[in-house]
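Note to self: keep these together.
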Amino acid sequence: DADVARYLKLFTFLPLDEIEQIVREHSSAPEKRIAQKRLAEEMTTLVHGKEATQQAISASATLYGSGVGELDAGTIDALVAQGVAASDVPAAQLDAGLPVIDAAVLTGLAKSKGEARRLVAQGGLYVNNVAVRDANASLSKADLVADRAIVLRSGKKNYRLLRVAQ
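Structure:
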């Protein structure tokens, strides 16, 4: 926290008056980590470019609480790069309807179908950040994000991707 203003001056091309504004906003609400987030954004843009920065922001938003509506193919790749495990499933299996319980086991979110059913019963299994209420639910191509993957989650931070194999 103490060094973020100095780092913004050293490692970014932001105008000094903008840096001062960021530091003022950060001082008024340090829990929001405004300055640190801006430093990370500026550094990522310098190293990887604006598009990669937006993908990383979308991936992080998915991992840390928001929905999956802004995910695109590049962001899905960024999720994998951030360490989210991915499993592939044939498109025909999604066409036929893949039981969500089977998907949980396939991706490693649950060790068995019984564990997956308990996860659903306890409200701890999510598809595209929406809680699964029915253990008999099936996944289909309609659940794909960016026509490419389905985001599965158990608990708050245990994510998996189910990608459609072409």
